[in-house]
Amino acid sequence: MAFPTDKLQMLLDNVLVEKWYIPVKLDEPLGVCLTAAISLAQEGIYNKENRIVFFFESIYILSFQR
Hints:
Layout: H1 5-15, H2 29-42, H3 50-65
Helix pairs in contact: 1-2, 1-3, 2-3
């Protein structure tokens, strides 16, 4: 399984703007990225994949802070 870079970019485009919108359904960008990150973390790949670390340390946190 690979981390969905395209969905991560969609989140970046939606989170880092003044009027943000975070799609939260399981089949939308946040759900897809979260599901992939959990699966890859369970495989022990979390720290080896910069995009997953970036997702959790920035986009995931920002999605719930605004």
